[in-house]
Write a structure and sequence with these properties.
Helices cover about 40% and strands about 15% of the residues. The chain has about 475 residues and is of the alpha/beta class. The longest helix is centred in the last third of the chain and has 21 residues.
């Protein structure tokens, strides 16, 4: 697979990582000598009258106002312009940029775009980036936005991009104005998995740097219910490929693509997707997920690592049956000690963003672990002395087989996690695994002090036996 040429030329990539420390705030800019102001009005493209649905519409939603991700949105738009458009595929985008006008004033417009026109040359794309991105401040210059004037349908300021209702409104607008036979919905922004930190202080999924708002895991289900069915749901956000998150969207998509670990902000290689859909509009939804997962890993910079998996939601009912059977069997076999031992060696992902402080801390306090690995280790630790223990071991093998052969359609990886585990060990689906250490000293304290959402209120915890299993691990009941 050919790498994104833009990606190889610009060293501006960063983790799409959760962090309790906010390294940069627009408040510091607004308080300085450069005043915030409206950018000059630019010509905007009219919404076309589309008589017949196209084969596909790519709905791309981005929250990249913060310092780390500012260049990423422009890079991805340039990737899309390099691919061009066709009569078979719509590409509809909404994203915000921190923009600098010619007079030096700063604003944060939210752009609604329909990518169109002839493919750009690499030379033009490189020129637009080099002349339009200030790599020190990561402001996008007005000259770069002007190049997209033919694609911009609307331009607003003061938009709360972290409000789930606004995300849903955009996606509904895209489906109404750019109808298609099938839809791929891609979200790009910070992700925290099931860690919905207090909205008053911390980041979450699709976090808005200005409003401090974000889409919680319960709100994700509300958002998807408002949007309606999409064929493929791609989460270009860290830590999101968890059983609890996939469960939230299972009724609204056929395929879920995401990563259990950090994602590099170069994101999925969208030119490969557009090329495939333009050449073969009948491209199956699972193949779309497969292509995006493979291309993300294939286009990683040489010194970077990562993993992405593809999950067909049709496999979830059977998976839930196997999971429930295993959880019940372990509890009946009195396998608590085996599970407690397993949690010390299970592959962990940096759910609290502590790896920048200490890898050991990120591993010790993480509440996100690879499900396959946790089941494997627990099964290995359970004695084979009683009928209940033998049944628990059998249920463990059945669950692991289901994860490998049914639930996770494809799993691509390279290297090791940021927490130090080789990516060949996990299988592509994470879950809330009891941590080695509780961040606040107690489970109740963790959820009341730092979490916006109580885990046991999530549908996955209530609709499967996993909530009861964790309760048994944590509290012995």
């Amino acid at each position: 697979m050919t790498k994104s040429l833009l990606l190889t030329m610009f060293s501006v990539l960063s983790f799409c990582a959760p962090s309790f420390a906010r390294p940069f705030s627009l408040d510091s800019v607004r308080a300085g000598e450069v005043a915030s102001a409206e950018l000059p009005v630019m010509p905007q493209a009219a919404v076309p009258a589309q008589a017949e649905p196209k084969e596909w519409t790519i709905i791309y939603y981005s929250t990249t106002k913060d310092f780390k991700l500012r260049p990423s949105f422009l890079i991805q738009m340039l990737d899309l312009k390099l691919a061009g458009s066709s009569g078979k595929v719509n590409v509809v985008v909404e994203g915000s940029v921190v923009a600098q006008a010619e007079d030096g004033s700063i604003s944060t417009p939210t752009l609604r775009m329909a990518i169109g026109g002839e493919p750009w040359s690499l030379e033009k794309a490189v020129t637009v980036f080099n002349e339009g991105m200030d790599l020190k401040t990561r402001f996008v210059k007005e000259s770069a936005l002007r190049e997209f004037s033919g694609d911009i349908v609307s331009r607003e300021t003061g938009v709360d991009t972290g409000d789930w209702r606004h995300v849903a409104e955009f996606a509904r607008w895209a489906k109404a104005n750019y109808p298609a036979k099938r839809y791929a919905f891609l979200i790009f922004g910070h992700g925290n998995g099931i860690v919905d930190a207090k909205k008053t202080a911390e980041k979450g999924t699709l976090a808005d740097e200005d409003t401090k708002n974000y889409v919680t895991i319960p709100e994700m289900r509300l958002m998807m219910a408002e949007i309606g069915k999409v064929d493929v749901f791609l989460m270009q956000s860290c830590l999101m490929q968890m059983a609890e998150v996939v469960w939230q969207v299972k009724d609204y998509t056929d395929v879920v693509v995401g990563s259990s670990e950090f994602l590099w902000s170069n994101g999925f290689f969208t030119p490969a997707l557009l090329k495939a859909l333009n050449e073969n509009p009948q491209f199956p939804s699972l193949a779309v997920g497969d292509l995006m997962a493979e291309s993300y890993v294939a286009t990683l910079p040489q010194d970077k690592t990562g993993h992405v998996s593809v999950i067909p939601t049709a496999a979830l009912p059977r998976f839930a049956e196997k999971l429930d059977a295993w959880a019940d069997a372990v509890m009946k076999a009195d396998g608590r000690d085996a599970a407690m031992k397993a949690r010390h060696k299970t592959v962990r992902f940096d759910s609290f963003g502590l790896v920048t402080l200490s890898t050991a801390q990120s591993v010790n306090y993480s509440i996100s672990g690879d499900l396959y690995d946790f089941v494997r280790l627990t099964t290995e630790n359970i004695p084979r002395e009683t009928e209940e223990q033998l049944k628990a071991a059998e249920a463990g093998r059945a669950l692991m087989e289901d994860i490998e052969k049914s639930l996770v359609y494809k799993y691509y990886y390279k290297g090791a996690t940021v927490t130090g585990f080789d990516y060949s060990v996990p299988r592509g689906i994470a879950i809330h695994v009891p941590p080695r250490k509780i961040l606040t000293g107690s489970v109740d304290g963790m959820y009341s002090q730092i979490m916006q959402t109580n885990y046991w209120d999530l549908p996955f915890a209530r609709e499967t036996r996993w909530g009861a299993f964790l309760n048994w691990i944590y509290r012995g009941k």
